[in-house]
Design a protein that fits this description.
Distance between the termini of chain B: 16 Å
Strand content of chain B: over 45%
Number of strands of chain B: 10
Strand content of chain A: 25-35%
Oligomer: heterodimer
Strand order of the largest sheet of chain B: 3-2-1-4-10
Structural class of chain A: alpha/beta
Number of helices of chain B: 1
Distance between the termini of chain A: 48 Å
Order of helices and strands of chain A: EEEHEEEEHHHEHEHEEHEEEHE
Radius of gyration of chain A: 22 Å
Shape of chain B: elongated
Amino acid sequence: MIEAYVHKKLHTANGEMLLDIQLRIEKGQFVTLYGSSGAGKTSTLRILAGLLSADKGKIVLNGNTWLDTDNKIDITPQKRRIGYVFQDYALFPNMTVRKNLEYALEKGQDKNIIKELVDIVELEDLQDRNPETLSGGQKQRVALARALVRTPEVLLLDEPLSALDQKMRSKLQDYILKLHKQYNLTTILVSHDVGEIVKMSDKIYCLEDGIISREGNPITIFTNDRLSGKFQFAGEVIAIVQEEVIYIVTVLVGNNVVKVIAQESEIENLAIGDKVIVASKAFNPVLVKVEE
Amino acid sequence: MNVFSGHISDIQVNKSLSMVSVRISERVELKTILVETPETASYLSVGNIVNVLFKETEVIISKEEYPLISVQNKIKATIEEVKKGLLLSKLTLKTEIGAVASLIATEVLDEMALTENQEVIVMVKINEIMISR
């Protein structure tokens, strides 16, 4: 579990801002920090990683104190057992993919971890290539693998997919989830993409001007807040069938199965197993009293 | 789903209901009734950019320009494409705000003799439009 409290005066484009954040993240949880630019998301990640100092704060991971400003404890980023992935990959351009990964090994560390990671993110055929010959999605797979070479307990992802197109994003999301589960990581993602957040995270923290304005389950946070429909349920797609000029999508909502008519354009990005929000207006449903 | 972006041009509130007008283009403004107020939904503020959403099944087609009918939202349109099914048919309609899709009964399509390039009026009831930000 990560328990963190950080306090820092930041100088932003809009003037001074006080970052005042409290996080409580269970081991194995996938958490997203969400908010507009300049809300303090990246600064929070950097303080957790030890790349930015806090004015005041305490960070404890599973009983190990990383930071405690009151007791002058501030362990180095290298000792925090964190993997960090940036939006711009940050790979060494003059090294092959394999060398980039090997460079991250600790002294005396078993090299088998590299083979394992290369297998998971499917880099076998790209191992001898230099980063500049790779696509954005391939580079980000290398960056992901590299972040995990030292088998960290915590993975920090700072908008890692925002430079990629939708198809590549979706693929990379699957790789990230696979790694998250395989290594039982505690992952903190910074993202603006609502679909991505709902797909990936167990919990979301909404940051506004340096403080957490809301926290909770992503579906609850996004549904009640963003769409005016008062009749909303989160569910999972279990079937998509084309009939005449329409599609009938079957959605499992809790223990109930509902059916929704959809158009081709709506099902283009929809697959069985996807999480969706079924929404309608309060004006449309009818109530029928159940006779007992 | 039909989705169009616009800005909120007017909000009339009575207790927990709001009648919200969204200006989509110069001549097209869509009205919607919500069980929300500016106090309960932060996006309800005049000038805010929002999306209006309505389902194809809720889009009514009229051949008359001024039909006496209790539907408030009306947009001039030209039928661009007709896809005919056995029971249901899908119309793609060209309008000032972009393409609007409508799903109607094939019987009605035949009865009204709706064909491509015809000029029609697209109508949507106020209770069928949702807003998202």
